[in-house]
Amino acid sequence: MEFKTILFYVFSTVTVVAALRVITARNPVHAALFLVLAFFNVAGLWMLLQAEFLALALIMVYVGAVMVLFLFVVMMLDINIERVRAGFWSNLPLGILVGGLLAAEMAAVLTGRYFGLANLPPHDLPANHSNTKELARVLYTDYAYPLEIASVILLVAIIVAVTLTLRRRKDTKTMQASAQIAVKAKDRMRLVKMASEVEESAPAAKQGEQA
Amino acid sequence: MLNNFVMPDLYPAAPEIFLLLMSFLVLFVDLAFGATQRWMAAMLTAVTLMGCAAITLAGVDGQTVLTFSGMFVDDLLSDFLKLLTYLAVIMMLIYSRRYLADRGLDKGEFYVLVLYATLGMMVMISAANLLTMYLGLELMSLSLYGLVAIDRDSPRATEAAMKYFVLGALASGLLLYGMSMIYGATGSLEIGGVAQALYHEQADKSVLVFGLAFLVAGVAFKLGLVPFHMWIPDVYHGAPTAVTMFIGSAPKLAAFAMALRLLVYALMGLAVEWQKMLLIMAVLSIGLGNLAAIAQTNIKRMLAYSAISHMGYMALGMMSGLVGGELDPFTAVNAYSSALYYTVAYVMMSLGAFGMVLLLSRAGYEAENLEDFKGLNQRSPWFAAMMLIIMFSMAGIPFFVGFFAKFAVLLAAIKAGYTTVAVIAVMFSLIGAFYYLRVVKLMYFDAPVDAAPIKAGLDLRVLLSLNGLAVAAFGLFPDALMTVCTTALIRSL
Predict the structure, then answer these.
(1) Is residue A105 in some structural domain?
(2) Of A129, A133, B183, B427, whose CB is crowded by the most CB atoms within 10 A?
(3) Does A149 touch chain B (CB under 8 A)?
(4) Do B71 and A115 touch (CB under 8 A)?
(5) Cβ separation of A144 and B68 shorter than 8 Å?
(6) CB under 8 Å, gap of 24 or more: what pairs does B403-407 form?
């Protein structure tokens, strides 16, 4: 057995076990960490396929950025996992049955003939072959159109997220710096011309107060 | 290394580029004037769609042009479907103007998302590559999820959006998985390339059929065929009526284009397999849609089940192209153009039916129950007549457009040898006639429950009248539309 084959089985086994633990772990933080492990091993599989750029991008983007953010969210939300998973064990037999049937059927159709180890990796590339260069070459030329659509999809995601979450409370007090600077003395202070006070007799003063 | 790169011809994609640029303008205008001048975003959106229509019309030449390294196709079919899409979206905007204003939903985001959903449909309609098809679908779906949830304070809308999002993501996953299998088997993402590989029988059949099953499931979800229909009643019911109208109209055209391009253009070599799948789903949809619609008291839910059954009839046309494993171009074109005709007719009727719901709604009141249609004849004989035309047409009663649409798909099915299926479809359309006629009965023979005068703007009244009359007119002259559908298909095959 080649060393690469052993690596493949190690990465695959850890991926499958970690993915299973994601849905069975009791602690959501543990589940998120198992997801990190699964991503990491999938990146290893990609490395075996000589797709080093994708492998590194997966680690940097998903493990580095997305999952850390996800962990923060999980920790802040304080999800009660027991309540979310109520009925998990009672539904498990049916789930295993359906999932197992699906997996068995898919395996029966595909088996190892088409996507087995024999086809992996398809060909050995020279050591100085750059995946990144290859991707960069086609991404902005042949695949410019899908790239543009993908960017529009991201824009839509931003717009939808802002639309659904941005709430301006009506009762919040905010400072408006421009209005504060533009304020003039006469906006704040009113000078009223009044007749000068003259000391008069007591009843007249009383009348003035009433008016 | 880059010397052999040729700048793609942008002209065929001019409508898409124009729409994208204008959507940025709408965003900026809304940012600057949205707080005070809400009409500006709406007006700009309408202008954008009309501009797109003008650009598309100017580019109609009947030639099939591929651009962007063969990922984008501009043919007569795409021009025809795009023009219909613009029309459906503009009609939706006019119908829903007052409804949105009454509920404070006429924000700039609404119009921007409508534009992006339209862009997604255009990308799907013009997709010549599995990748662009998928991305167009995602662009459309993501915008639609946002639109369903746009009324943030309505728990029903939020629930509908959540269901739509989760099920839609699952369907996207299925579709993508199917596409990856087909790519694995044929080694090509291009629709033409897949068809070539199938024609030369280079690809492995079992992997292909495996991928096909997932692909058909994804397409069926977008069309809303049983058993992938679960989202339709809840989303139609939960979304604001204007958004329901949007989901129930233009995306059906895009879904038709997706089904045609993926199944017919790319996977014609597997037609024997996917026709069987479509057959089962079509019969189930027609049956379940018509039976479940009877039990509904909410007209939006009723129209949702009616949509499921209508898409079942459409699928009858889609699955009748290949007879006995032999490809006869004449039969095939007839079958696919009957499906296209059905889709167009359905979009027209669907817009009219939801237009009626919007007509009866007013500020703080949703006329979404069947009861709200009681005694409409006494309140407004003209609009009761319009609703009568639309309901008769949906039921498939002769001399309205819906009758000829049903007639065309049933004829195609019989020609393909599915006589039993056609008989079953007719039986269920008789059962279905019950709930359409019930609306007519409520309008004409019951006393009104809601006696408030109909306060709709002139634009809505005129458009609704035109819509109803079009349903009648296309029924009197069915050949005109049929000829256009057939020509568009023949010139694009």
Answers:
(1) yes
(2) B183
(3) yes
(4) no
(5) yes
(6) B403/B475, B404/B341, B404/B345, B404/B474, B404/B475, B404/B478, B404/B482, B405/B313, B405/B338, B405/B341, B405/B342, B405/B345, B405/B346, B406/B313, B406/B342
